[in-house]
Design brief:
By secondary structure, the chain is an alpha+beta fold. 38% of the residues lie in helices and 15% in strands. The strands form eleven sheets. A three-stranded antiparallel sheet has the order 1-2-3, with no helix packed on it. A two-stranded antiparallel ribbon has the order 4-5. A two-stranded antiparallel sheet has the order 6-7. It holds the Pfam family zf-C2H2. Its main location: nucleus.
Length: 373
């Protein structure tokens, strides 16, 4: 895309006239830096609109405050350029005057259309000087450069973890607060990350039918990488090992959670009671104690649960499944905790001590049980 240019001129107080060559279309590129500004002798600008394309000087701000900014009457945001206000108004109106001649997609800004057109043309004008990788837009190129520099300027004020990109930090911070910004318009379920919402939406749209499936158990996945990780459940492959104790894990996330046992790190913080957690799942379950939320419900009787494990145990009432058995008498149980309690009948283990015996070490027996006898 090529556009005609116009010479925009502005008189400074020191008698120096500054000009730049700028696109005439309304959605011009952001202001150029000082390298693109030249000293030049020229008549006064032809129109007032041309003056509005430049920020006012400090001296002008002091002498005529009414010429400082133009203001959006809807949200009150101010701009130094009238053209920027015009572009900003499209946020409120939803206007997208620029359309792609190839696929018809529309944009509110011409610069965004130009970037989009590179998808069709294959143009990648931004190239990494280190690895040679090419990019369509400058923002993606800048993000890529942090891979080489190792720069991580954005740090979490809660746990101190650093990130190379601000959006990544913002997503991470929601793991501490439990904030969930994205909700499903069909069932109302909320998610902290948009990618998780998009994955969830496939349940409603039926896109799950297009997924890849496990040849062993038939479980389906939206992407092949998730299937590859899942297959390790069947092969028992555990490629991730703890450098401290040597324990191995199927998934990298499992290793990262395990390492916190050694470091003592508890990055998940409850804003209500101050309790900290080393696992996200434990944190999310805990938060529901305060909110009363019970997102898991039984499709048979309608009973609701705050934890998925609670629902899974409850479902065995309806199915009759008893997966835990005593290795002494072979009695079967629906849940692990009941089975462990039962086993103490055989072992004679009594792990719970009366608090009176702790407070008074000289006592030989529990005074409460003596009185009841």
């Amino acid at each position: 895309l090529s556009f005609p240019t116009t010479l925009v001129v502005k008189q400074e107080t020191e008698g120096i006239i500054i000009f730049m060559v700028a696109p005439t279309y309304e959605e011009s590129e952001p202001e150029l830096d000082s390298e693109h500004l030249l000293s030049y002798s020229s008549p006064e600008p032809e129109s007032r609109d041309q003056q509005d394309n430049f920020p006012v000087s400090e001296s002008q701000r002091k002498t005529d405050s009414s010429k400082k900014f133009v203001k959006c009457e809807i949200c009150g945001k101010t701009f130094e350029y009238r053209s920027k206000l015009t572009r900003h108004m499209r946020v409120h109106t939803g206007e997208k005057p620029h359309s792609c001649s190839t696929c018809g997609k529309r944009f509110s800004l011409m610069i965004n259309l130009k970037t989009h057109m590179r998808i069709h043309t294959g143009e990648k004008p931004y190239s990494c000087g280190i690895c040679g990788k090419e990019f369509r837009d400058q923002s993606t190129f800048k993000k890529h450069m942090t891979v080489h520099t190792g720069e991580k300027p954005y740090s979490c004020s809660t746990c101190g973890k650093s990130f190379s990109q601000k959006p990544t930090l913002e997503r991470h911070q929601r793991s501490h607060t439990g904030e969930k910004l994205h909700s499903c318009g069909t069932c109302g379920r909320e998610f902290s990350q948009m990618i998780n919402l998009k994955t969830h939406m496939r349940i409603h749209t039926g896109e799950n039918k297009k997924s890849v499936s496990c040849d062993t158990c038939g479980k389906t996945f939206q992407c092949k990488s998730n299937l590859t990780r899942h297959v390790r459940v069947h092969t028992s492959e555990k490629p991730h090992s703890c450098s401290t104790c040597g324990k191995r894990f199927i998934w990298k996330s499992g290793l990262e959670t395990h390492v916190r046992i050694h470091t003592g790190e508890k990055p998940y913080f409850c804003n209500t009671c101050g309790k900290r957690f080393n696992k996200k799942s434990g944190f999310e379950s805990h938060v529901r104690i305060h909110t009363g939320e019970k997102p898991y419900f039984c499709s048979t009787c309608g009973k609701r649960f705050g934890k998925k494990s609670g629902l899974e145990t409850h479902l065995r009432i309806h199915t009759g499944e008893k997966p835990y058995s005593c290795n002494v008498c072979r009695k079967e149980f629906r849940d692990l905790s009941t089975m462990k309690s039962h086993r103490r009948i055989h072992t004679g283990e009594k792990p719970y001590i009366c608090s009176s015996l702790w407070l008074c070490p000289g006592l030989d027996s529990c005074p409460v049980s003596s009185q009841s006898g």
